[in-house]
Amino acid sequence: MGLFTSARRLAGWTLAFSICAPATVLAEEITVFAAASMTNAMAEIEERFEAETGHDLSVSLAGSSALARQIQQGAPADVFISANPGWMDALEEDGLLEPGTRFDLLNNAIVLIAHGTDADEVEVGPDMDLPALLADGKLAMALVDAVPAGIYGKAALEHLGLWETVAPQVVQADNVRAALALVSLGEAPYGIVYATDAVADDNVTVVATFPKDSHPPIVYPAADIAGRDTGAEAEFLDYLRGPVARAAFERQGFVVVTE
């Protein structure tokens, strides 16, 4: 009788524990394609998100154009964050975005940077003699017809009437971080990058900021890629708009879009 009673009590405790214990959250893998200009912020967000949720976040960083083309070719991305709306528009037109998940996440600015830590400020405007400033050197930019930072930079130079004279001295890099590296290493005396890129490198100086009206607004949209839909994807998109991600973005100089 005693043995039977003990067995019943053990079964009751086991049932009670199974009812009261919280459900185990299954870890999921999320692949995020993000613009190269987000490198530092995404590194911080990846670490915090994984620690807080238990999910495995894999971040692939490159020029928005290269990432968008990879998605068009079937790359297994779950979330895409582009450095301009154009490439996100292309994916949306192809039916590659999960309906209703796209939103504007960040704003940025483009700046003229110089190699070193003590370069003199310059005034950017229609009267600027940019070729003379460069002397025999090059102006480093991301691909001006494909990568958002290069597109914005070219648009600003065209707006100010400076593009035609400086174009022969422009050296183009695959993405904005590669353009930043050319200036940081002294291989180009000046470059055009995002303000957030300049914050990330101690070997460059911001010598001018391009006027906002000289180029289209710099907007970073984010969206869920159609296909493999998991709760973790929605969780990550919400996390991007939360206080931890906001603080990480702002530390890198981004302006978080408020709805």
TrEMBL record:
<dbReference type="InterPro" id="IPR005950">
    <property type="entry name" value="ModA"/>
</dbReference>
<keyword id="KW-0500">Molybdenum</keyword>
<feature type="binding site">
    <location>
        <position position="37"/>
    </location>
    <ligand>
        <name>molybdate</name>
    </ligand>
</feature>
<dbReference type="GO" id="GO:0015689">
    <property type="term" value="P:molybdate ion transport"/>
</dbReference>
<dbReference type="GO" id="GO:0030288">
    <property type="term" value="C:outer membrane-bounded periplasmic space"/>
</dbReference>
<feature type="signal peptide">
    <location>
        <begin position="1"/>
        <end position="27"/>
    </location>
</feature>
<keyword id="KW-0479">Metal-binding</keyword>
<feature type="binding site">
    <location>
        <position position="64"/>
    </location>
    <ligand>
        <name>molybdate</name>
    </ligand>
</feature>
<dbReference type="InterPro" id="IPR050682">
    <property type="entry name" value="ModA/WtpA"/>
</dbReference>
<dbReference type="GO" id="GO:0046872">
    <property type="term" value="F:metal ion binding"/>
</dbReference>
<protein>
    <submittedName>
        <fullName>Molybdate transport system substrate-binding protein</fullName>
    </submittedName>
</protein>
<dbReference type="Pfam" id="PF13531">
    <property type="entry name" value="SBP_bac_11"/>
</dbReference>
<comment type="subunit">
    <text>The complex is composed of two ATP-binding proteins (ModC), two transmembrane proteins (ModB) and a solute-binding protein (ModA).</text>
</comment>
<dbReference type="GO" id="GO:1901359">
    <property type="term" value="F:tungstate binding"/>
</dbReference>
<comment type="similarity">
    <text>Belongs to the bacterial solute-binding protein ModA family.</text>
</comment>
<feature type="binding site">
    <location>
        <position position="176"/>
    </location>
    <ligand>
        <name>molybdate</name>
    </ligand>
</feature>
<keyword id="KW-0732">Signal</keyword>
<dbReference type="GO" id="GO:0030973">
    <property type="term" value="F:molybdate ion binding"/>
</dbReference>
<feature type="binding site">
    <location>
        <position position="194"/>
    </location>
    <ligand>
        <name>molybdate</name>
    </ligand>
</feature>
<feature type="binding site">
    <location>
        <position position="149"/>
    </location>
    <ligand>
        <name>molybdate</name>
    </ligand>
</feature>
